[in-house]
């Protein structure tokens, strides 16, 4: 369930004009920017952007970049992009961040559907004139490179069929691969980058039944290098991406100095999809409403915009 509250009917022309007026004179009317863009779905935002350019001969996104600053500007910018283009931008930023950003590459590759991932790869190619897999490969090496390139180029079968015998066999392969810390990880990479998510869930369940602990717990205990950390993230995203995102938000809020980049990424990416479900998980885990926790950690127009996307007007 989404947290975004958007009107069923709206006037893109009136919105474009109101935004144009918000940019006039000294300073920007941020309240109008939040009131409009914080309440428009992706289709409505693209309509506003298209009409704004027709009416004023300039790109609304570029104008917003020049008018806004800091975390507020970054969150509005990413919100205004079409989902595939946003994923392309997030992937590029993650690649530039090196080992600090590998989890974002894994997240994009494992949470998106096959069609969404393909769209993100096309958007990346269009925006950066290089392929996503090319940039991932150029910035990684060894098992990590194999895993990340395999994940971003994967086109998984989306059906519900399960092969129980295969789940048993491959859960044993994963167990051996994890146990042998310096062993050959090719088979584990093959399994995680080619099998359908439904088949992988059956494999993870079989792993837990046969070995008395979840595969993620075993990996977390041994997550001593970038490859195993990426493997852990991939399995968590495939297993239950809502639980994964809840933890991303929890870590972003609870760390010393809020991780605004992670907070923005989750909110703008999931506000139109399942952020309400993620927020409910957050409350169950922390006994605090997500919007209340967020409100204590951030401030200014950035805070107002993020809370608006969370479905709470301020």
Automatic annotation (TrEMBL):
Keyword Calcium: yes
Cellular component GO terms held in the UniProt record: cytoplasm; plasma membrane
Amino acids binding Ca(2+) 3: 295
Keywords: Annexin, Calcium, Calcium/phospholipid-binding, Metal-binding, Repeat
SUPFAM superfamilies xrefs: Annexin (SSF47874)
Binding residues for Ca(2+) 2: 253, 255, 257, 297
Protein name: Annexin
Organism: Vigna angularis var. angularis
